[in-house]
Amino acid sequence: MESEKIIIGITHGDINGIGYEVILKAFSDNVILDLCTPIIYGSSKVFGFYKKQLDIQSVNYNQINSAKDVNHRRLNLINCVDDEIKVELGISTQEAGKAAFSSLERATEDLKAGHIHAIVTAPINKHNIQSDKFQFPGHTEYLEGKFAKSESALMMLTDNNLRVAVVTGHIPLNQVAKTITEDLILKKLQILNQSLKQDFMIVRPRIAVLGLNPHAGDQGVIGEEEEKIIIPAIKKAESEKIQCFGPYPADGFFGAGRYKEFDAVLAMYHDQGLIPFKTIAMDSGVNYTAGLPVIRTSPDHGTAYNIAGKNKASELSLLAAIYLAIDVSRNRKIFAEMHDNPLPITETKNNKKDQIE
């Protein structure tokens, strides 16, 4: 039934990047409308500009004022920015940053109100979006501030059976070692384990944990974080029946393809996990924010100013992000039904005695 279709909100990101190009290409095939009802939070003017610029005339939309007015058989668009907005291909502008935030804020409000089931965020420029209303290093931290407590969100990159999460996200490299603690690693393992169960329907997840130092510290020869922080965190997680293993040296782990033996990998910092991930799955990977009560996915690439408007961008990562949002929405519903209202244990000692007799 159309009323049961999953409604996906899509933010347009930085209007001077490749966001609209990958959106237009993703919806050039109407088959995706059989799987979900999409709403673009963006600009009809910018949409029209890119249709002409890229000569993609087959994609049309239904303009609405509210998510409540959605047409389940069409691509929908809600105007979030002023009609006078100007596109400057491949250039970072303050106007583009404001437009990106307006789109994100409107979509987030509808997500919080339950008007949409998930959001897929096109890439933003993390510099020009900064303002008194947005003081975050990225989408993950912004959404964590909106929907959860501090350190409740987990950045996870996923592509089919490859899933890489990070303990520390968008922080300077010189702060990584002092940020990593036993409690933080344990918390991220708990979030990752739960997400693998409820979002990906993996019954008994196996998680590989990477070390921080070269060769995972070589038993304290090259750094002590593995011995004093990471291994104790793994042991605590094991006591909670989380199946986690390591710490593994990052280079050899990925080089030998050992990630194929696990359901997910927990890296200590951003580039340690994302460089190998994007080397393996650059065109089809998805950035997923685990640990939130809401669903958010994103393509795993940036604004790509260097190819903006040149009809060179691939839509595969955005399509994968949309498909993952649909899958997680369905999986969470199934998981909730499986664990909802278990039969209470109400037997008394007398009842047991009567049964024995």
Short description:
The protein has helices at 19-26, 44-54, 94-113, 139-147, 176-179, 182-198, 225-239, 250-255, 270-281, 316-339, 349-356; strands at residues 6-11, 36-42, 62-64, 76-79, 118-121, 154-159, 162-166, 206-210, 243-248, 264-267, 286-290, 296-299. It is an alpha/beta fold. Helix 6 crosses helix 7.
Describe this protein's structure.
The protein has 357 residues and is α/β, with parallel strands linked by helices. It has two domains: 214 residues, Isopropylmalate Dehydrogenase, CATH 3.40.718; 138 residues, 3-Layer(aba) Sandwich (Isopropylmalate Dehydrogenase). 38% of the residues lie in helices and 17% in strands. It contains eleven helices and twelve strands. A twelve-stranded mixed sheet has the order 3-4-2-1-5-12-11-6-7-10-8-9, with helices on both faces. A hairpin with a 2-residue loop joins strand 6 and strand 7. The radius of gyration is 22 Å and the shape is globular. 45% of the residues are buried. The C terminus is likely disordered.
